[in-house]
Structure prediction request, 72 residues.
Amino acid sequence: MQTDEFEAQVRECHAAVGTHLPAIADRHSPLALLAALAEHVGGSLQLFLQSGSCTPEQARAVLERVERAILG
Prediction:
């Protein structure tokens, strides 16, 4: 998959997830929401690695993307 196509898919998925977050945030504290999202990311990466859907390098790239988004 080309980088531009991947980036477009990421933006589309981000927007879809973003439509649901306000309702979830109304029911849970920000810290609980972040912890739950972190559990989803970690669990998903583990499943993708075990199934061969992604490589360790790709999983690291996802984590690095999260780190850059948070810490710059």
Remarks:
- The chain has a mean pLDDT of 92.
- The two ends are 26 Å apart (CA to CA).
